[in-house]
Amino acid sequence: MSVKDHEADLPSHGASAEHHSEDRRRQRHHTIRTEITAFLGELIGTFMFLSLAFSGTQIALNATDTNDLTASANSMPNVEKLLYISFTFGVSLAINVGIFADVSGGKFVTAALWLTRKIHWHRAVQTIVAQLLAGMAAAGFVLALLPGPLTIETKLDASISITRGLFLEAFVTSQLVLTILMLEAGPSKPIYIGFSLFVAEMGSVHFTGGSLNPARSFGPAVVVGFTSYHWIYWLGPFLGAGVASGAYALIHWVRREKR
């Protein structure tokens, strides 16, 4: 056998390296497309959710002479407005979760999904950015689309302290987060998530505005201005997400130990 024939029978390391390089390039291209799709899904989904919810809130608050849920610290809450706002948020979230959950996976509770390792840190960062941008865009869109000043900002009722408002936001957020974490994926899950937000809003919108996510409060605050206690709408939901994530992890650990 000649030297030339012997070399022809040897494996081609150059071709193999080129093949691996092509695989890496395709994988990288696929990853970039997946992340861009997830970002756009979270951006559009959050924008649609908040735009519809903000519109309903704007209508409810401007339905009477006062755009507050109560006239003073001693007044009874306006139950009709509370129901209208809570229902608008719940239904809007259910619809948009059903549309975009399989695209972005954020579901409006990014911190909890990251804490429970359901999404990577880079997906969490881009999801948070998308939600904040969507919150600002939705607030500006509602201001431009509907007549009158923007009245959808989250603020504390005169009857509740900042500390109580902080822990109320944490509590209702934990309810929503547990709903998302504990339920298995299926066609009915968006409905349960919507109902969970509806109940959470019913128990909080009168006292805190029912934020449950910084994006919901941050967007309108950019337009109308920030309150001195705006930080509770960041810390409260994060605390709630942490508590719910801990409960979720504990339940799954106990289940594994039983087996």
TrEMBL record:
Molecular functions per Gene Ontology: water channel activity
Cellular component terms per the entry's GO annotation: plasma membrane
Compositional bias of kind Basic and acidic residues: 1-25
InterPro entries for the chain: Aquaporin-like, Aquaporin_transptr, MIP
Membrane topology, as annotated: Multi-pass membrane protein
Signal peptide: none
Annotated protein name in UniProt: Lens fiber major intrinsic protein
